[in-house]
Design a protein that fits this description.
Oligomer: single chain
Strand order of the largest sheet: 3-4-5-6-7-8-9-12
Shape: globular
Distance between the termini: 47 Å
Largest sheet: 8 strands, antiparallel, barrel
Number of domains: 1
Low-confidence stretches: 4-25
Strand content: 35-45%
Length: 193
């Protein structure tokens, strides 16, 4: 009986980690600079509300703050262990991207906020989120095809390009399915108005 409980607890714990790492699944690409410039920021009010992942393991809530930013709150179905992120939406070509970073970064001079780029698309009450995949960039870098500034940090690619360069890069690869992970699907359960 104890092993059954232990197995169930482990599954819940692993699921919780998977949900909280929604934007960090696989090995997402990190950037020192944001993707957006103020004039490029868009707001899609249809994102606002509460979403649950298709496996019903966790929630993602979008709220608009400061008129151009989203507060993204992720938490488990049990309501424990919350992570709060800031998201900035931008349309590049025909694709929408969220520039995501941690909301609460200390004012410490030793902390640099890191940005993650998530391609999103909606179909009525379904939202899909897919990370820019580091394996794809590593492959490009190994063939000298990664035409944006970057650093190799351990086994990762850390983008160091400025926003306009990042936008041009994403415009080139936005239609390539290999550039993004399989993504996570969310179903809307409540829309705030």
């Amino acid at each position: 009986m104890d092993s059954l409980i232990d197995t169930k607890v482990k599954k819940i714990y692993i699921s919780l980690i998977a949900v909280f790492l929604l934007l960090f699944t696989g090995c997402p690409v990190r950037s020192i600079f944001p993707l957006y410039l103020e004039e490029d920021v868009i707001v899609d009010s249809t994102l606002v509300g509460l979403w649950i992942d298709a496996d019903k393991e966790g929630y993602l809530e979008f709220q608009i703050v400061d008129s151009k930013k989203y507060r993204l709150t992720m938490y488990s179905v049990e309501g424990k262990d919350t992570i709060i992120l800031t998201g900035i939406l931008e349309r590049i070509g025909k694709a929408d991207f969220l520039d995501v970073s941690l909301s609460k970064v200390t004012n410490d001079d030793y902390v640099i906020p890191i940005h993650y780029f998530v391609k999103i698309w909606k179909n009525n009450d379904t939202l899909c989120c897919a990370n820019l995949e580091s394996d794809y960039l590593e492959n490009m870098a190994s063939r000298n095809n990664l035409n944006v500034p970057y650093l190799e940090y351990g086994n990762e690619i850390l983008l160091t390009a400025q926003p306009k360069e990042l936008q041009q890069f994403l415009l080139r690869i936005a239609g390539d399915e290999k550039a993004f992970d399989e993504g996570i699907k969310f179903i809307r359960i409540h829309q705030n108005r």
